[in-house]
Amino acid sequence: MKTGFVGIIGRPNVGKSTLLNAILGEKIAITTDKPQTTRNSIRGIYTCEDSQIVFIDTPGIHKPKNKLGSYMDEMAVNTLKEVDAVIFIVDSSPKDGSGDSYVLDKLKETQTPKILVINKIDKMPPEVFKETYDYYEGLGLFSKVMGISALEGKNVDDLLEHAKSLLEEGPMYFPPDMVTDHPERFIVSEIIREKALLYLRDEVPHGIAVEIEAFREGKDLTSINACIYCEKKSHKGIILGSGGKKIKGIGRAARLEIEGLLGTKVYLELWVKVKENWRDSGAALSNFGYTEK
Ligand SMILES: Nc1nc2c(ncn2[C@@H]2O[C@H](COP(=O)(O)OP(=O)(O)OP(=O)(O)O)[C@@H](O)[C@H]2O)c(=O)[nH]1
Ligand SMILES: [Mg+2]
Fold first, then answer.
1. Centre of ligand 1 from the C-alpha of residue 119, in Å
2. CA of 30 to the centre of ligand 1 (A)
3. What is the mean pLDDT of the segment spanning 6-32?
4. pLDDT tens digit string along 248-293?
5. Which protein residues touch ligand 1 with a CB less than 6 Å away?
6. CA 127/CA 133 separation, integer angstroms
7. CB count, 10 Å around CB of 23?
8. How far is the CA of 242 from the centre of ligand 2 (A)?
9. What domains can you pick out in the chain, each with its CATH number?
10. Distance of alpha carbon 29 from alpha carbon 191, whole angstroms
């Protein structure tokens, strides 16, 4: 068995979480068109006859504006130290000040084998692909430079084969049918956050955190109480929407997906609370699970 840990890193919104889901053939990481969707390291376990690879999806590396942002960056950069191989994803050649050069410097410091993945080739003009490919190939830093479409699953198998080739023989870390080691409660809170991100605009989504307050599993019905935290009173009104329309939409979309995940009917009760500036409060970050325990 080839086994090991592979980190997936890159700027926000390049498709890291979409790639993780494509590899697993199952959705465990939330994805949206908004940058900074992922806030924790998300572990996905890929097992086949001859290998088990634990992929670690990380928050997009960006210029942090608050403690949460710093924590997210730290999480992504620290992942580099813990893995047997790294997938660095881009969706263009580096632009000035984009953060890619910062990540490249970090990559240069490590001996860990690195793969450069150019994502979104389904919508990338050939000349942009070529320019990006030539740039990264020219750095001589990567064991392979390749194009994929995580959304369409294109070349994901090739990427898996190459990742496998970088790993050593070793023991399996997890049972073969396990797809993630995150508890269901965590995935459920992420699904609710994803729907909130999808339904909300402007600055509201970035200030949202979800806490599961009760999770009672029955044979046919799971009852869940969750609280959506936001940073301002005015945001609470936006999340509720006129006549509670918005929160109902978020709740319905989340419930349908959670029912698919758990395989039971779900009763989901959502509350909205304000916790001012929680993204800069160490205590709140720790409470929401955004700091090391
Ligand atoms: N066209 C196209 N869109 C893609 C592809 N991969 C991802 N996307 C889209 O890009 C957006 C961001 O995808 P995510 O997977 O959330 O990106 P991420 O890198 O995890 O983002 P953060 O968690 O914010 O760092 C979503 O709207 C995806 O549907 C792709 O191969 N092709
Ligand atoms: Mg993500």
1. 9
2. 10
3. 97
4. 999 999 999 999 999 999 999 999 999 999 999 999 999 999 986 5
5. 12-18, 31-33, 35-38, 59-60, 119-120, 122-123, 149-151
6. 10
7. 23
8. 30
9. 2-169 (3.40.50.300), 184-287 (3.30.300.20)
10. 9
